[in-house]
């Protein structure tokens, strides 16, 4: 399951962030951020529960549900259940970042 940020979500990042992450020396950091947007298994919107969910980078993201709205680490899920051949995509309005180690 992928929580995919919109183009507008990337535009909200501080200027230069994406360019910096794309530099060869930041490959590990970029991979960690990308894996933080992925959880194992096929999780449909109806199956989402509030709490912590382990991401593929090993860190846990916080899922919250308030007034029927679902967030992951405070990013709003704006479109759900886009089914692909090997998983499902939920679109979010912010890039989510793992806590600094």
Which value, in Å, is the CA radius of gyration?
14 Å
Average pLDDT figure: 93
Question: What portion of residues is helical?
Answer: 10-25%
Largest sheet: 6 strands, mixed
Name of the CATH first level:
Mainly Beta
Please write the string of helix (H) and strand (E) elements: EHHHEEEEE
Could you characterize the architecture of this molecule?
- This protein is α+β, with helices and mostly antiparallel strands.
- It has one domain: FAS1 domain (Roll), CATH 2.30.180.
- It is built from three helices and six strands.
- Strands 1-6-5-4-3-2 form a six-stranded mixed beta sheet.
- The longest helix has 10 residues, at about 25-35.
- The chain is globular.
- The protein starts with a strand and ends in a 9-residue tail after the last strand.
- The relative contact order is 0.27.
Give the helix/strand layout:
Elements: E1 2-5, H1 7-11, H2 17-21, H3 27-36, E2 51-54, E3 60-66, E4 69-72, E5 75-84, E6 87-92
Parallel strand pairs: 1-6
Antiparallel strand pairs: 2-3, 3-4, 4-5, 5-6
Summarize the structure.
The protein has helices at 7-11, 17-21, 27-36; strands at residues 2-5, 51-54, 60-66, 69-72, 75-84, 87-92. It is an alpha+beta fold. The two termini are 24 Å apart.
Which tags fit this structure?
101 residues; alpha+beta; FAS1 domain; 6-stranded mixed sheet; globular
């Amino acid at each position: 399951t992928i929580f995919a940020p919109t183009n507008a979500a990337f535009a909200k990042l501080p200027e230069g962030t994406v360019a910096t992450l794309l530099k060869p020396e930041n490959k590990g950091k970029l991979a960690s951020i990308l894996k933080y947007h992925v959880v194992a298994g096929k999780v449909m919107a109806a199956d989402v529960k509030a709490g912590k969910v382990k991401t593929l980078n090993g860190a846990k993201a916080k899922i919250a549900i308030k007034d029927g709205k679902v967030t992951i680490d405070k990013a709003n899920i704006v479109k759900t259940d886009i089914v692909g051949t090997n998983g499902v995509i939920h679109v979010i309005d912010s890039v989510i970042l793992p806590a600094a180690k």
